[in-house]
Structure formats: structure tokens, C-alpha cells
Design a protein that fits this description.
Elements (H helix, E strand, L loop, with lengths): L1 E5 L9 H15 L4 E7 L4 H9 L5 E6 L3 H11 L5 H4 L4 E4 L11 E6 L3 H4 L6 H17 L2 E4 L2 H11 L6 E3 L6
Parallel strand pairs: 1-2, 1-4, 2-3, 4-5, 5-6, 6-7
Length: 177
């Protein structure tokens, strides 16, 4: 099986999502016979991707593109054009780590939702943040075959606020190294 994973978030070292993505990828590829295509977009952070992948097994291949994630957000979440397979080649599954959901030719889409605070407490966020979260989460709710939630509370919020059926949701608690 060919599994694509968006690792673009790891360039934000020290953040929770960067740590989560790093640890999930390490755990997934450690004892797997699947082929992994790690996809990273960044204008200046591509060396971070190369350094990360250098310590991973041989069943991992890295594809980087010198495009800022904000540009991909525009193409993928606003226009919804340019399938990720244009960069990665054919995939069976594509996991996005930050709701930047690209169009997919034939791969099953998957993402992780850590929380929906901007939807629960919109008064605590700027209007632009709330709008981005709504737009991205609506696309995820429509297109992802599976959505990982890192708690039962998030799973319940996703069902209630986004109308996603429970059978598409999986709770996978974040681990630590």
C-alpha cells in the first residue's frame, strides 16, 4: 500500500502539531511494510524535511516542493485544484495533518482534528481564524473517508458541529516518545 502523509507542519518546531506529526510518522513507518511518501511544502524549510526523513527506514520517500503552505491552502482549500498525486504519484491513502485537504484522484483521504475550539468559542478568535477553520473543516467533513480525533470530546464535537457520522471517526490519543 502507498500511503502519502503531509508533513508540512513539522517545520514549526516546538508546536504541538509538529510534535504530533513527527511522532505519528515515526510510529507508523517503524515496523511497516507499506511504502510511505512524505510530502512537505515550504519555501525555506525544506532542509527540516530532509533532516527528519534521514533517520527513517528505507520504505520512506520524501517529496518537497518550494511552495508556502498558504499557497497550497489557496489551491487546495479555496479552488480545490491540483491533486496531491501530481506531486506524489499514485497513492492509496493520503493523510493531511492540518486540514489542508487536497483533491485526490483515487486515494482515500484522512486527516486529524485535534479540536474545534474556533467553532465552539468563535468569540475567542479573530473572524479570519474562524472563517479558515469553518472552510477547511467543511471540506474535511465532505471528503475525508476517515477522521482521526485525539479525544472522545473532539469526536463528539465533530459529530455534532460538522455532522460527520461516527463510523468515519476514530479516536487515537496522542502519544509521546
Amino acid at each position: 500500500m502507498k500511503i502519502g502523509i503531509d508533513i508540512s507542519q513539522i517545520i514549526y518546531e516546538g508546536t504541538g502539531v509538529a510534535t504530533y506529526v513527527r511522532q505519528m510518522v515515526r510510529a507508523l513507518v517503524a515496523e511497516s511494510t507499506h511504502e510511505y511518501i512524505l510530502f512537505g511544502s515550504s519555501l525555506r524549510g525544506r532542509s527540516v524535511f530532509r533532516q527528519f526523513v534521514s533517520g527513517l527506514p528505507s520504505n520512506v520517500r520524501l517529496i518537497t516542493i518550494p511552495i508556502p503552505p498558504s499557497v497550497l491552502d489557496f489551491f487546495w482549500n479555496r479552488l480545490h485544484i491540483i491533486p496531491v498525486e501530481w506531486f506524489t504519484g499514485p497513492l492509496d491513502v493520503f493523510w493531511s495533518s492540518d486540514w489542508t485537504q487536497p483533491p485526490l484522484h483515487s486515494a482515500l483521504g484522512m486527516t486529524t482534528i485535534h479540536d474545534v475550539m474556533a467553532l465552539l468559542y468563535p468569540e475567542s478568535f479573530t473572524r479570519s481564524i474562524v472563517d479558515v477553520h469553518k472552510r477547511r473543516l467543511q471540506r474535511v467533513a465532505r471528503e475525508c473517508t476517515r477522521i482521526l480525533c485525539d479525544s472522545e470530546a473532539t469526536k463528539n464535537d465533530v459529530m455534532r458541529l460538522l455532522g460527520v457520522s461516527e463510523k468515519r471517526l476514530r479516536v487515537i490519543y496522542p502519544g509521546y516518545s
